[in-house]
Specification:
With about 110 residues, the chain is of the alpha+beta class. Helices cover about 25% and strands about 10% of the residues. It is built from 4 helices and 4 strands. The strands form 2 sheets. Strands 1-4 form a two-stranded antiparallel ribbon. The protein has a two-stranded antiparallel sheet with strand order 2-3. A hairpin with a 4-residue loop joins strand 2 and strand 3. The termini are far apart.
């Protein structure tokens, strides 16, 4: 099983999760992070570290966000690995909890 980064990460991009990942399965895009499902070892460490609650086990992805399973898998193949913590986006706090951010995802 893998974990999935969902909607609330868009325009926040906190990287606390990256710092605790033992297998470097996070990939970074312009305004979002994704988890490579082939690299994730289901350790669950990232879930508690995400300050905006955007990471879920694949079987517990909230209703309506199932599409993020495919988005994570697709973009993990395209985006570079991120293995170290970086500052969140400048206005991350303003975006936390804003619903339906998928149209804002920059590929």
């Amino acid at each position: 099983m893998t974990h999935v980064v969902t909607d609330n990460c868009i325009n926040c991009k906190h990287t606390d999760c990256v710092e605790v990942c033992p297998v470097d399965c996070f990939h970074e895009g312009p305004n979002f992070l994704v988890i490579d499902p082939d690299e994730c070892i289901d350790c669950t460490l990232c879930v508690e570290e995400c300050p905006v609650g955007a990471i879920f086990p694949e079987l517990d992805v909230p209703a309506g966000q199932e599409g993020f399973l495919g988005i994570n898998a697709e973009l993990a193949r395209e985006w570079p690995v991120l293995a170290a913590k970086k500052p969140a986006l400048e206005d991350a706090a303003a975006w936390d909890g804003v619903p339906d951010k998928l149209p804002l995802l920059r590929r």
